[in-house]
Design goal:
The chain is mostly helical. It has helices at 2-14, 22-31, 40-58, 64-110, 118-127, 133-141, 147-157, 161-174, 179-182, 186-249. The protein has 2 domains: 2-58; 82-200.
Amino acid sequence: MKVTEEDNKILDQFRGKVNTTTKQIELAVRRLKYYEEANDAEIEKAVERIEEKLRIINSEYMQWFELLLAFVFAIVGYMTPIWILIFQVKMRQLEMEDEVMQFQTIILMLMRIERVNVEIILEWLERYSNIFKAPITKCVNNYEAGAWESLEAMKEEVSYIPLIRIIESLQAAVEKIPITDAFDELDSERDYYQEKRKESNERLIKRKGMIGKGIGFAPMVCMFVGYLIVPLVFIGLTSMSNSFTSMSNI
């Protein structure tokens, strides 16, 4: 560690100076306190070591693949927040489908009970809501001021079409239409969304299976490419370059 520390002093002195000579390095080494009692052989060995390190340092430059990697990482870093938002949107859509199906189940259970009105249904939906809790809570709080108006305000806040259909059915039930008549198509719609969700889950499972297979085969592919194809290509290019050099010399 001490030798490396002394070498770094010389390297810091001549870093970037490509025209540095061996004599200059030797003079700098002899000035160091660490080499005051060293003989010529030790100083010559230190000079050779430092000169080799300096040659490596001064010959370093940015290569094309480093610039390419910098652009790749920059693009990935720039796009990562957008990809995260897209992923969150997909997950939120699945959660909204689950919640609306849960609302449909609750309504199917309550609509057969006597003396059940729209306000009671909204209170039950509020209890089991998560994503749509805020607009439903606001609608329940404003229900006494006007049932139709509170439902209309909630419909304007919500952009998810299946929930808007439920709200429109609730508005129809407010107009003295029986709740069973207002939700007469709920059974068929619920079956449709169940089949749609089942199909989406099957596609998602199949996609995950393909990703898993790709990840599983990735180490083997990397091993073949890294240990077989890349060395062969490098050896071929090197041989070709040497052959062209020999031909040009001839």
